[in-house]
Amino acid sequence: MLTDKAVDAVRGVLTAQTETVAGLRVLVKTGGCAGYEYALGLEVEPAADDAVLAYGDDVKVFVDPVSLPLLDGVTVDFVEDITGVGFRFDNPNAVKTCGCGSSFSTDANAPGGTCSSKRA
Fold it and tell me: Full-prediction pTM beyond 0.70?
């Protein structure tokens, strides 16, 4: 799921925390103009039913069971370019995405706002 650059970025965020944080939560929630949107957050501990992905001994990613199938095959990269700095999601399951890159749909017929088609 995470590229090496994304792991390094998460590691930096985790070590900068003054409170104990166990890992990064990656989830999909309803919203955005395409139907779903990605969300990231820091967690003190994983939920009992979370999938836990480990990157070395110090970076853990928590994914809830509802988000897990929507994130299957997703690559999360950390990008620093002229348009900004942040995490970028590449989701092979997305058939519609929005220009902002944070909203997607796995159903080409799903209602949504101004989105671009990812697949023909």
Answer: yes
